[in-house]
């Protein structure tokens, strides 16, 4: 019995080391999710409102998930150092729930990417039609047009039917060359097309979504399946500790 206990101790020490390292990486993942959620809430809020038909809780979900992972990452380190079998089993159960949630999120994002494109068409068109250069959605439209060098939904003609055009013309954020783009030019339906970007923003944004959704889904699946490693380590460590305690009795 004593010799067998001596054989299991190095295994337990090795598993503890691996699980602590994994828990630390898991904790960092939670911190990243928390940071992305806060960034999405305070920086990307107006942009998200253009993609989501209704107000979205995505930033809050990321903040909540990140905070929970940080707490359980610390719990995992504590359970590992303490060597408590029931704590390790609880940690493994939490990792399995995170695995399922991330798997569902990754599949949903990949499957419903076309619906996101359709929703963006409606919401962005509404933002253009109701543009007033002052509210959050209008400011988001301006930022998108400047950063992507685009104009309107499909092209600059989207602005001709907006409530903003009859009085103010096409917004200055569409100007290809700000130094050669006056307010009178933008109010003139004949001259304005020669002063603004020709490509619409919808195509650029949806191309970006199509290009990167596969990468995002792949990263999500990769993180999700990494939880299996943590589950396996926690379960194995719990088993070895329990067996070692039993042999000592």
From TrEMBL:
<dbReference type="InterPro" id="IPR000301">
    <property type="entry name" value="Tetraspanin_animals"/>
</dbReference>
<dbReference type="InterPro" id="IPR018503">
    <property type="entry name" value="Tetraspanin_CS"/>
</dbReference>
<keyword id="KW-0472">Membrane</keyword>
<feature type="transmembrane region" description="Helical">
    <location>
        <begin position="20"/>
        <end position="40"/>
    </location>
</feature>
<feature type="disulfide bond">
    <location>
        <begin position="151"/>
        <end position="174"/>
    </location>
</feature>
<feature type="transmembrane region" description="Helical">
    <location>
        <begin position="90"/>
        <end position="112"/>
    </location>
</feature>
<feature type="transmembrane region" description="Helical">
    <location>
        <begin position="215"/>
        <end position="241"/>
    </location>
</feature>
<dbReference type="Pfam" id="PF00335">
    <property type="entry name" value="Tetraspanin"/>
</dbReference>
<dbReference type="InterPro" id="IPR008952">
    <property type="entry name" value="Tetraspanin_EC2_sf"/>
</dbReference>
<feature type="transmembrane region" description="Helical">
    <location>
        <begin position="60"/>
        <end position="78"/>
    </location>
</feature>
<dbReference type="InterPro" id="IPR048232">
    <property type="entry name" value="TSN6/7_LEL"/>
</dbReference>
<keyword id="KW-0812">Transmembrane</keyword>
<keyword id="KW-1133">Transmembrane helix</keyword>
<keyword id="KW-0325">Glycoprotein</keyword>
<dbReference type="InterPro" id="IPR018499">
    <property type="entry name" value="Tetraspanin/Peripherin"/>
</dbReference>
<comment type="function">
    <text>May be involved in cell proliferation and cell motility.</text>
</comment>
<comment type="similarity">
    <text>Belongs to the tetraspanin (TM4SF) family.</text>
</comment>
<protein>
    <recommendedName>
        <fullName>Tetraspanin</fullName>
    </recommendedName>
</protein>
<keyword id="KW-1015">Disulfide bond</keyword>
<dbReference type="GO" id="GO:0005886">
    <property type="term" value="C:plasma membrane"/>
</dbReference>
């Amino acid at each position: 019995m004593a010799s067998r206990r001596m054989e299991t101790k190095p295994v337990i020490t090795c598993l503890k080391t691996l699980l602590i390292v994994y828990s630390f990486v898991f904790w960092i993942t939670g911190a990243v999710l928390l940071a992305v959620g806060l960034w999405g809430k305070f920086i990307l809020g107006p942009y998200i409102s253009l993609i989501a038909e209704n107000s979205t809780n995505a930033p809050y979900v990321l903040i909540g998930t990140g905070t929970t992972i940080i707490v359980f990452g610390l719990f995992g380190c504590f359970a590992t150092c303490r060597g408590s079998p029931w704590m390790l089993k609880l940690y493994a159960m939490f990792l399995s729930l995170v695995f399922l949630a991330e798997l569902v999120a990754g599949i949903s994002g990949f499957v419903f990417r076309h619906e996101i494109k359709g929703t963006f068409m409606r919401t962005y068109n509404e933002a253009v039609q109701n543009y007033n250069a002052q509210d959050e959605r209008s400011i988001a439209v301006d930022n998108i047009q400047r950063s992507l060098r685009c104009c309107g939904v499909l092209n600059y003609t989207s602005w001709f039917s907006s409530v903003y055009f009859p009085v103010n013309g096409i917004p200055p954020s569409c100007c290809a060359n700000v130094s050669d783009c006056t307010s009178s030019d933008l109010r003139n339906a004949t001259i304005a097309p020669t002063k603004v970007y020709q490509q619409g923003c919808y195509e650029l944004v949806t191309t970006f979504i199509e290009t990167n959704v596969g990468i995002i889904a792949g990263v999500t699946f990769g993180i999700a399946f990494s939880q299996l490693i943590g589950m396996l380590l926690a379960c194995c460590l719990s088993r070895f500790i329990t067996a070692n305690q039993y042999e000592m009795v």
